[in-house]
Design goal:
11% strand, alpha+beta, disordered N terminus
């Protein structure tokens, strides 16, 4: 499944060359300005990514591990979270058969801002905020300006019960931005991520698929 977002292809080309970097500053958006200027500037390999919290659902000792790589600005990912993921959760994650890990993909700075909002409430609120972001994607991601997009993301944060000061601190956490980008680069390189959504099932990468196709793979592994 190809990303239909042109920025995605550009960003991934930079990542493939080991040359995606970010500089930060406070711009008109009221959020940290995320720049992806080209191949000449590389993300520092010295960024410590050990502080990034893995967002996990399900039994830590489940027999199957599924990692989803998704972008908050990807329509196919929004569709997967409306149709595929709830069924996986009901039949495999909640039943202790699958340990599910969600990892953000950063095709553009808007996706980074959405990630900052999703992570702002900590592990307990992450998946709930993620659901809100995907459900409202058609609205917030299509605003006419970056400032308007950020304002919509702020609304999602407030809807999730966060205060204004907390939201602004998260949106302007430049250290977190650098860490998340380096973390994403490392993960994308390890698993060869070049489209969203992508799934890594017990170490093997798969592109987007239907629930029935997914269930067939999982059932085969479970011997069912």
């Amino acid at each position: 499944m190809k990303s239909i977002l042109p920025a995605g292809a550009v960003a991934l080309a930079m990542i493939a060359g080991g040359a995606w970097y970010m500089t930060q500053g406070t711009g008109q958006t009221g959020a940290a300005d995320v720049r992806l200027p080209g191949a000449a500037q590389a993300q520092s390999p010295d960024v410590d990514t050990s502080t990034v919290v893995e967002m996990v659902k399900g039994d830590a000792d489940a027999p199957i591990e599924v990692i989803e790589y998704a972008s908050y600005t990807c329509p196919h990912c929004a569709s997967a979270h409306a149709n595929l993921i709830p069924k996986l959760e009901e039949n495999y994650i909640d039943t202790g058969k699958v340990k599910f890990i969600y990892r953000e993909v950063y095709f553009d700075k808007v996706g980074v801002w959405a990630s900052l909002i999703a992570r702002c409430g900590g592990e307990e609120k992450f998946f709930g905020i993620t659901d809100l972001i995907y459900k409202g994607q058609q609205d917030w991601a299509r605003k006419g300006s970056e400032a308007a997009v950020v304002d919509e993301l702020r609304k999602i944060g407030r809807l999730a019960g966060m205060e204004g000061d907390q939201i602004e601190a998260c949106l302007n956490d430049t250290a977190q931005i650098s860490t998340l980008v380096a973390w994403y680069q490392k993960n994308a390189s390890e698993h060869g991520i070049n489209s969203t959504p992508s799934f890594v099932i017990d170490g093997k990468k798969y592109t987007n698929m239907s629930y029935d196709e997914f269930a067939e793979i999982l059932d085969d592994k479970l011997g069912e």
